[in-house]
Amino acid sequence: ACGVDRPMNDLASCEDSNLAVLRRLFDAWSRGSVEDVLAEMTVDCIYEGSVGPEPGTTWRGRNEVAQGLA
Asked: 61 in helix, strand or coil?
């Protein structure tokens, strides 16, 4: 991702990269693929659920998100 694992000196490239991540994430959600959703998240991610069995629940880290989305 831009600014994380590569410099942000090329804004157009960063925008393309960010858009690609969002497209992969949207596709993974649409297919219901928890594994692919998690692949787009960092190890230290924070996910705040807005729907589902426990709206408002916050999960920290990929392991908690995986358990919460399972």
From this structure: helix
Question: Nearest-CA neighbor of 29 among 20, 40, 18, 19?
Answer: 40
Mean residue pLDDT across the chain: 83
> Is 43 within 8 Å of 51 (Cβ atoms)?
no
**H-helix or E-strand containing 21?**
helix 11-31
Q: Which residue has the tokens 């959703």?
A: 37
Report if pTM > 0.85: no
The residues facing 26 across adjacent strands are none
Identity (one letter) of the amino acid at 45?
A: C
Question: Are the C-beta atoms of 61 and 45 separated by less than 8 Å?
Answer: yes
